[in-house]
Amino acid sequence: MAAAPVEWPGLAGLELGRADLSGRGILITGGSHGIGYACASEALAAGARVVIAARSRGPLEAAAARLSETYGGGRVHAVAADVGRESDVEALVGEAADVLSGIDGLVHAAAVLGPIGPALDVDPAEWFETVRIDLFGTFLVARAIGRSLRASGRGGRLVLLSGGGATSPFPNYTAYACSKAAVVRLVETLALEFEAYGIAVNALAPGFVATRMHAETLNAGERAGAEYLERTRRELEAGGVPVELPARAAVFLLSDRAEGINGRLVSAPWDRWWEWPERRHELERGDLFTLRRIVPRDRGQGWQ
Questions:
Q1: Contact by Cβ (8 Å): 264, 283
Q2: Which of 93, 135, 176, 271 can bridge 144 by disulfide, Cβ–Cβ 3.0-4.6 Å?
Q3: H or E stretch covering 171
């Protein structure tokens, strides 16, 4: 099913759905709404069969019904799971592998924003719960999928969503920021560990997509910080990054077109990722699109 072009600077004429996932089985967490739902829609448009997962069964089943109505029955299956609980994750991956006759790829979009406010004032229990879901949950899902793919010997591709705070400080959102920065390092590390099994792992920063998370910022008011609160209002008024853009990037990373791209942090709105296949050798040789420490010589300074 063809999809429309995305309106975004520099993307004129670039069509959605160019990547082919025909016959692939894809698991998508956080699939009941927002970016996860958009990724499921794009994967289905590219020919995949999809299992979507989320904690709340009602919204999840409603999302599966909408997707089935658009793309046809039998290609979408819903499984309720808390990604921060190992037993839920093991059951989810087992059921997904059965339903899909094997898993070929993952988009892990499940996350919470967590407590908003200065680190001196937030509730430590809420802070830790955010890390449990956003970081530990990412580890559990990637681990379970990796073990499944290792056992099947079929290889696969994992896309783990990163985002706010991963590449720059994010005051008043410490739990979310620390979790998302850690996800990038987790991706880079798992990419090296999983490579021997034919499994690629990449991080995807979706950009400022207008999702329900931003309502939490608006509700937090001054606890979010005046600068970020104003930025959120401004971005939402402008419409933000179209959700189809990170969804398209995720499908690209799941596809054969992304062969050789591994252990990278991809910014959906700012990186020309659709051109990366032509830059594969440069990506394989260096540390482009990775986290690293900056030392004086990187800035043309001679000390140290």
A1: yes
A2: 93
A3: none
pLDDT per residue as tens digits for the range 202-244: 999 999 998 888 999 999 999 999 999 999 999 999 889 999 9
For the stretch 43-79, pLDDT in tens is: 999 999 999 999 999 999 999 999 999 998 889 999 9
Q: Treating both helix axes as pointing N-terminal to C-terminal, what angle do 34-45 and 57-71 enclose, rounded to 10 degrees? A: 30
Q: Which domain holds residue 58?
A: 25-269
Q: Is residue 260 included in any domain, yes or no? A: yes
Total domain count, the chain:
1
Residue with tokens 């919204």: 59
Q: Which of 221, 180, 184, 219 is nearest to 201 (CA)?
A: 184
pTM above 0.85, yes or no: yes
Q: In angstroms, rounded to a whole number, what is the distance separating the alpha carbons of residues 143 and 140?
A: 5
Helix residue ranges per DSSP H, the chain: 34-45, 57-71, 86-99, 124-131, 137-152, 174-194, 213-220, 226-238, 244-254, 280-285
How much is the mean pLDDT over the chain?
Answer: 92
Q: Is residue 289 part of a domain?
A: no
